[in-house]
Amino acid sequence: xxxxxxNAATWxxxxxxxxxxxxxxxxxxxxRTRATVDEALSTLRTYRVMAQHLASARELxxxxxxxxxxxxxxxxxxxxxxxxxxxxxGRWLALFRDDIPAAAASVRVLALWIAALLVASTFxxxxxxxxxxxxxSLIASPRMIDGVERGHLWTYQxxxxxxxxxxxxxxxxxxxxxxxxxxxxxxxxxxGAFYMIALNGLMLGGLLAFTHQHGLALGLVKFTLAHGPVxxxxxxxxxxxxxxxxxxxxxxxVPSRVESLRRRAAELGPLLLGCAxxxxxxxxxxxxxxxxxxxxxxxxxxxxxxxxxxMLLWLSGRLIPRAPASLI
Amino acid sequence: xxxxxxxxxGLTGVDISLRIAGPGTRSYAFVTDWLLRTLLALxxxxxxxxxxxxLALGAHRAPGNAVMIAAGILAIATYLLYHPVVEVAxxxxxxxLRKAGARIVTLEGATPGTGALLIxxxxxxxxSLPVCYMVGLTCxxxxxxxxxxxxxxxxxxxxxxxxxxxxxxxxxxxxMQRTALSLEALRLIHDLLDRWPSLExxxxxxxxxxxxxxxxxxxxxxxxxxxxxxALRARLERLLAGPRR
Lengths: 328, 245
Prior knowledge:
The complex is a heterodimer of chains A (328) and B (245).
Chain A: H1 4-28, H2 37-60, H3 65-81, H4 89-106, H5 108-131, H6 142-149, H7 158-161, H8 164-184, H9 191-213, H10 217-224, H11 228-250, H12 257-288, H13 297-315
Helix pairs in contact in A: 1-2, 2-3, 4-12, 5-9, 5-11, 8-9, 8-11, 8-12, 9-10, 9-11, 11-12, 11-13
Chain B: E1 5-8, E2 16-19, H1 23-57, H2 61-89, H3 95-100, E3 102-106, H4 114-122, H5 124-127, H6 134-142, H7 149-154, E4 156-160, H8 165-178, H9 183-195, H10 201-215, H11 221-224, H12 229-241
Antiparallel strand pairs in B: 1-2, 3-4
Helix pairs in contact in B: 1-2, 2-4, 9-10, 9-12, 10-12
């Protein structure tokens, strides 16, 4: 029986020419953006051969740098073969038509509870500022307070400072940060999402009470009428999604909490994309339409309700019709 | 205790092990990317300012302001969206990760999809709290697979990306075909040549002589005593290249 090192040497010499060809194939496979059936099969064959060689090399030369080289080449091919497909037109359509409405449906009940929390905290904020008006300094800047006390709403002054496009971008980014924050902080057993909603509700109620004390509440309602319904609904949806994440940690549906969290996050991910798109629309309305004093309350109401209905139709899966089922 | 390797079940039943990157690699990659995106954003702002100046010289004040606003929005977008966009476009890599020799993979060793990469980036909001990614770094230090919250939720891991792994297999097999040296001898020569610039001259010539005496039958130790460092290095490289045809 030959000595093991002789075995290994013979084995290496016999396969070395093959490795060069395999290495070339392994280098090109990850670079391909599209592969024909033949190319895909060739990659799979290369992977299979390389895995066989890796197993033998581990037996014959454990810990050698040949094993490391084969392992690296195998890992590169493994990643290339298991790569998720790129988002094509059909996948995008399925995302907007199926995935986002499905994710929204899975948090519908939670979203209603979160909306109730928002309403309750708005009332609490109203009561707080109505009873203790001096506390307004906790939620409004001195400039805002000064303006309202002199009979001017800050909302209509912003247009004088920044152009609508800049304003829209700023509002959009602020809203996205709040919405994503509500989702991410839900990780803390849902408490972060509750906190963000309660805080926003308190601020909204407090500001309404404060402007009401100075006879400007109607102006504030008028300002928020066009963009507010969708903005607040999206915030509730994101917080509900965050709470669902927290629930996945508290009551895991699979043996591991981390795995449960991971699955729920993957299910809810598309909803956040939907939220961001809806907020983009809200930001545009808030930047271009809401600050214009010339726009009547009826137009604002129409835009607000129209956009909100559009959102409801989309999230309930009724906006984008499904293609008729194939007979095959 | 942190794991050193991520063991992935291969498609043919042969396991593949990937080395997990630690907080150091992660930080190095992040700082590199941060510098890059800051420079990109500043570059955009500078371009906007120059264009504005040019338009102002031509007495077009209004378009100049619009250009500056557009440049500002683009700069902010570049700074904030750098990671998600680049990671998706480069399939789990960024220039910083490439420089640090790391890449993002799923727990199954695959290239992560767009959804996983976006979720991973979304949770930067938590990982970056309160300052300087303290939550993320702490999480990274105390988790088995050295992951931050974003990775945990997205099911991704940062692994060491060996430099040019497939080409090294190609190089190795080419050398094996040409040379009569054993695999161990090849490894020793590679190790010594890789470390050559960082070793002191006396130390590297001593090591080269000892190695050549062991693996090269044509090397005479007595004559080798007088051989210079570059001559010894050239001899080692000739051994790797194999006999000339």
